[in-house]
Amino acid sequence: MTTRYALYVIPEDGTALARLGEDWLSTLPADLTAEARVYGFHATLKAPFRLAPGQTEEQLRAACATLASQSAAIDEAPPVLARLHGFYALRPGQDSAAIQALAAEAVRRLDSFRAALNAGELAKRLAAPLSPRQRDLLEHWGYPYVFDEYRFHMTLTRRLDEAEAPMAEALLRPLVAEAEAEPLRIASICLMRQHDGSVFTLLQRFTLEGSCASSV
């Protein structure tokens, strides 16, 4: 059995983003969301990885708890609907140094838990058109979109061609309107687990308890 873990931001209960997450899959046509359905409505902080030899799930939980205890909640401007590399997602309305810092810290602190990419995983990553910088990040950190290449986003569709995009956007605009009117708040991080390619499920939500609040 292959088990993978990831660190996500999942919307806080009671927020417009959480309501969007509840309605998203049932509102959009299944063929637009098939891949995103496996990962759920989220933003990635640490991309999926297998545990390195000698590391345990409990140790990973403890590391996530420590990260959360030393990281502050983040408040940002409302998110906006954007098209990124062909797929639609919600993104922060403006660049956020606080979000970038949280994601970078997650990558660094959890890297010792990450098993090296196997041949299949590496081939999948290299199949994408990567810049020299992204290839370097892939080699050293197991994922090409970290640090200066990281973009916080919450995926809503698969990659769409130019003929499909207008229809998808027309469906999405009313769906995301409430979320686009509410400030983005990140108050917790979520450790996720996946078995054998099934959907990712929540293992534990960790409240961000750092004393230095971040706000842009």
TrEMBL record:
A Pfam entry, by short name: DUF1045
InterPro entries in the cross-refs: Cyclic_Pdiesterase, DUF1045
SUPFAM superfamilies to which the protein is assigned, alphabetical: LigT-like
This protein's name: Phosphonate metabolism protein
Organism (species): Magnetospirillum gryphiswaldense (strain DSM 6361 / JCM 21280 / NBRC 15271 / MSR-1)
Lineage summary: Bacteria, Pseudomonadati, Pseudomonadota, Alphaproteobacteria, Rhodospirillales
